[in-house]
Amino acid sequence: MIGTPPAADRLARLAEEIVGEPPTVRLRAWDGSEAGPADAPVVEVRHRRALRRLLWRPDRMGLARAWVAGEITVPGDLYDVLARLTFPAEGPHDRGAAVRDLLALGLPGPPPPVPAEEARRRTGARHGRERDRRAVSHHYDVGNDFYDLVLGPSLVYSCAYWDTAHPTAGGSDAPAGPGARTAVTLEAAQEAKLELICRKLGLRPGDRLLDVGCGWGSLVLHAARHHGVHAVGVTLSAEQAARATERAAAQGLADRVEIRFQDYRDVGDGPYDAIASVGMAEHVGAAEFGRYAAVVHALLRPGGRLLNHQIARRPAPDETRYRLDPFIDSYVFPDGELAPLGHTVSGLETAGLEVRDVESLREHYALTLRQWVRNLEAAWPQAVRLAGPGRARIWRLYMAASALAFEQGNLGINQILAVRTGDRGSSGLPLRARDWTAGPRP
């Protein structure tokens, strides 16, 4: 009598029906059986419930829910697995055969509950104030201690600025102070990034700086401490605002740094000499970007500078069909949108800003993300305790996948320096602006 095939063999056949080719990873099933290339990295399907998710959602979302629920995991090198895997956005290559195999594995029944970490039904106008506040809270209000663990002492949640393609994982050998050039640790590379922004903005003592989406306050604290500015940081994350305020007081900068739990659209105390927007415009949305640029323009004094630091995607063949990856939209950045670089530049120029410099930091972000993943994996039990297993799995997957996307050129990150020109079109920039000196001011 012929016995039932091991579960892993059925998984391998199912994978081929979904993707259209034999699996490129080794599959380990819940019964301990394995199938697939012997020398390939392992993907564990720990529970047959993962396949029931795929029965009801035979697309990337079904796979994402199984990952978040811990029903699918990667015990080894996640980067290697992600580089090998393909999963059709529109569902299985052979849908009928895939459904038959799923049913043959004994999977009838209702769809499993959605993991609690998934963003719930969204109400209100897209990118309205209250909906934006909830979206930001979903991502950032997961515990400051968790972000301490992932980001390290710098508490900077954006692309660092490296001097070497082979950074070290940490340590205290980083040079201190503004302008330090050897960025071989994450902390030193983040310090170098903060200083680069301040130099591009041409900050001088007494200037007013606005940081739109200030996070935990690292940039405004750096600018106040090293450049003598009076800085305002705004954020829609209550946890960020509280922590940034504490940091300003602890560093003796409360008289020069103000942190507000406030929407950037409600800032009304301009003009500012300089505005930084670092990793914030991705939350604005294409329909609202024109308004965002107009608000920033209005808040700058003539001759004031804007540093817009923003992730970019490749232009789509049909921009009307662009959609954010469902995993990112549901679990990471609800309502977030990425724009091609050209769209961002055009939006700033349409608002009346003059774009003076664009610098790509694509490789720098890949290095930064790998450091964050290393931090997370090195303290995995603590991360799970702080944020819960589902949230920790989300961050591990999205940061590792993002690192590969930057390395492969599917995503970019750009610093755009723009100016609200003054009288007679003066920008106030030096003739050789790439030296990033303050230069004369109109």
From TrEMBL:
Alphabetical keyword list: Lipid metabolism, Methyltransferase, S-adenosyl-L-methionine, Transferase
SUPFAM superfamilies with a match to the protein in the record: S-adenosyl-L-methionine-dependent methyltransferases (SSF53335)
UniProt-annotated stretches for the region Disordered: 108-134
An individual GO BP term: lipid biosynthetic process
CDD domains to which the protein is assigned, alphabetical: AdoMet_MTases (cd02440)
Composition bias, Basic and acidic residues: 117-134
Family matches, as Gene3D superfamilies: Vaccinia Virus protein VP39 (3.40.50.150)
Annotated GO MF terms: methyltransferase activity
Pfam family, one: CMAS
Keyword Lipid metabolism: yes
Similarity remark: Belongs to the CFA/CMAS family.
PANTHER family membership: CYCLOPROPANE-FATTY-ACYL-PHOSPHOLIPID SYNTHASE
Official protein name in the record: Class I SAM-dependent methyltransferase
Source organism of the structure: Streptomyces lonarensis
